[in-house]
Amino acid sequence: MEDRAVERADSHINTSLLIQSLQNEEIDIFRNEFLDMHPYDQASFFKDLDEDIRAKIYLYLSPEEMAALFENLEIEEEDYKDVLAEMNPHYAADMLSEMYADDAVDVLNELDKDQVVSYLTIMDDESAKEIKDLLHYEEYTAGSIMTTEFVSLSANQTVRSAMYILKNEAPRAETIYYVYVVNDEKKLIGVISLRDLIVSDDDTMISEITNDRVVSVSVGEDQEEVARKIKDYNFLAVPVVDFQNHLLGIITVDDVMDVMEEEASDDYSKLAAVSDMDHIDRNPVSAARKRLPWLIILLFLGMLTASLIGRFEDTLDKVAILAVFIPLIAGMAGNTGTQALAVAVRGIATGDLEKENKWKLVIREAGTGLINGGICGVLVTFIVYFWKGNFFLGVLVGVSILFTLIVATLAGALIPLLMHRMKIDPAVASGPFITTINDLISILIYFGMATLFMSYLTG
């Protein structure tokens, strides 16, 4: 018994006991051990099992118990279809109806339309209607991630009656820390915290303790804006309303955490010029298919850089030493452009740029580029002079660094701002794109100045 306690403390999952009880069909032992675990640990154990072992779990757990596991299951989106196919259709439909509506919708969105219709047909009418209503909302909006399982109260009732309602509805509500107050037309008029209800006298009217300065989000609002609002206000949940202020649902902080992870992964994918980094591709063909389109685009942009260098072939023939500094100039342009890009994209993503004048960012980045370019330009001037013994060559490289860093920094800041203004995801202005564009700019500046001052270099 002591060894078992140690094993549990270390891993939280007694895998050997669970698998042994499944293989030996020891239902009571399995259920006692399994149901004592946190749903996340249940899901972690479940996802690593073979299909034949999982089939026994479906026999040993009720749809309601399986629903708690499924809400914590972290598998690739396309795998939901395979896992549901392992279950009896009626069992799967019952399980989906026991899940919180927003979580069930997330799962159903990964299935084919005929499969969705099939499960909704089998479900009880109430659950099916609730899920259908959520499926109609556009993806990535507040409506698509909200849940309709919340507690609402009327303003013209007492705390005593409100607590009675709360106790009855709490088991199905996703959260009870906030209770929303609506009028006879189901329009949102206020919010009450659970603490306010508990400390208030039983005969107090709800209208007397209602906070009418309630923050809500529109059903069509972008999920990223919703996540930002919950973060700014430190809410555990936020109500979702339509254009007439009818209360439609709520979005909880756990849903927002999923959104933030999804958006961060999406932005990072675009910054790395990869179409999808949510999951690791075990298949090299699949991984190559996702990355190849971006690489082909970057290949053609790189060919423009090569073509530009070719136009300055005469300059290179006269002063071959210029070729030595091409990687230095291009590399510095790419690095400083990526730094400015990161600052701009982060400011847009966090909403900080909405609170300040965007031209301040541009001016600040221009000043940063000027300072960095000036310091790096002076350093490289003396380094090249002492290295190659040619002062004019050092000045050429130093001045090119100065102008390149200024222009590259501005490009890194301006491009995502312009994209944001055009309603295009600024993360599309990815590191590789900024680097390639700045390569073109830096080569043009470098060889343009070299051609202009050729007499000083060959004299």
Largest sheet: 3 strands, mixed
Low-confidence stretches: 1-10
The rough form would be described as elongated
- Along the chain, the helix and strand elements come as HHHHHHHHHHHHEHEEHHEHEEHHHHHHHH
Structure annotation, total helices: 24
* Mean pLDDT, all residues: 83
Give the percentage of residues in beta strands. Answer: 5-15%
CATH class of the largest domain: Mainly Alpha
Radius of gyration from CA coordinates:
30 Å
**Pairing-aware structural class of the strands and helices?**
mainly alpha
Within the CATH hierarchy, at the fold level, what is the topology of the largest domain? Answer: Tetracycline Repressor, domain 2
Terminal CA distance: 90 Å
The CATH architecture term of the largest domain is Orthogonal Bundle
* Residue share in helix: 55-70%
Corresponding CATH superfamily of the largest domain: SLC41 divalent cation transporters, integral membrane domain
Strands of the biggest beta sheet: in what spatial order? Answer: 1-2-3
How many runs of DSSP E, i.e. beta strands?
A: 6
Question: Can you tell me the number of structural domains?
Answer: 3
